[in-house]
Amino acid sequence: MNDVWDALTDPTRREILMMLKKNDMNAGEIAEKFDISKPSISHHLNILRNAGLVRSEKHGQNVIYTISTSVLEDVMNILAVLIEKRK
Amino acid sequence: MNDVWDALTDPTRREILMMLKKNDMNAGEIAEKFDISKPSISHHLNILRNAGLVRSEKHGQNVIYTISTSVLEDVMNILAVLIEKRK
DNA sequence: TATATAATTAGATAATTATATAATTAGAAA
DNA sequence: TTTCTAATTATATAATTATCTAATTATATA
Where is the HTH arsR-type domain (chains A, B) (predicted)? Predict the structure, then answer.
């Protein structure tokens, strides 16, 4: 759970998720969208994967990344509790 | 918005929010609940306040903290977009 | 007014994190 | 099998962050 929050803190990683929300992309395509080195993006992808926010699958020499939203439900639930009115 | 995510990353700060969800508390009461120095808690409270997640009001020599959830709606919305199915 | 209490600010430090470059691994194609 | 491309791993570094102790500020009370 902490891993999920930590993954979501970084703006680059949130943007990656936003992009993956629209379409699956491979690592190179993702890296192209940012002004950051490929290894650095690879690192961000790793953090997202460890948090369970993306999945990766190798196709030939490409690695295709897909968003995985199930863990986000937990985050939503926590927020819902916080927002919920005190009785 | 970044400030909100950053504020939410830290487990101590999330726990503070959970506590404040139940009741308003003053700085000392909050600090007592953790095994962390008072200045450190003060620092966390400052980050929460800058993110708009709490408000503080001085009553005598106590400072009473209250949760403020409106910014959390924005976070919820971002998560909702991410979770939303691709069409 | 002197002292005690609540909280914050100041300053230092250890740990974490985002980033880069260089090296490596794996697969595709000449 | 050599070479090219995609991606990751290894390593180093600068910046950020969480924490501490000490000092300060503000209020209350003896």
Answer: 1-87
Can you tell me whether residue B33 is helix, strand or coil?
A: coil
Residue of chain A whose alpha carbon sits nearest to that of B6: A9
pLDDT in tens, B5-40: 999 999 999 999 999 999 999 999 999 999 999 999
Q: Residue B87 above 80 pLDDT?
A: no
Q: Do the beta carbons of residue B27 and residue B45 sit within 8 Å?
A: yes
Residue A21 has phi, psi (to 5 degrees) of -60, -35
Residue A54 to residue A63: CA distance in whole angstroms: 12
Which of A2, A14, A67 has its CB closest to that of B11?
Answer: A2
Alpha carbon distance A22, B85 (integer Å): 9
Q: Do A79 and B79 touch (CB under 8 A)?
A: yes
The average confidence (pLDDT) of chain A is 96
Sequence-distant (≥ 6) Cβ neighbours of residue B29 within 8 angstroms: none
Domains of chain B, CATH where assigned: 2-83 (1.10.10.10)
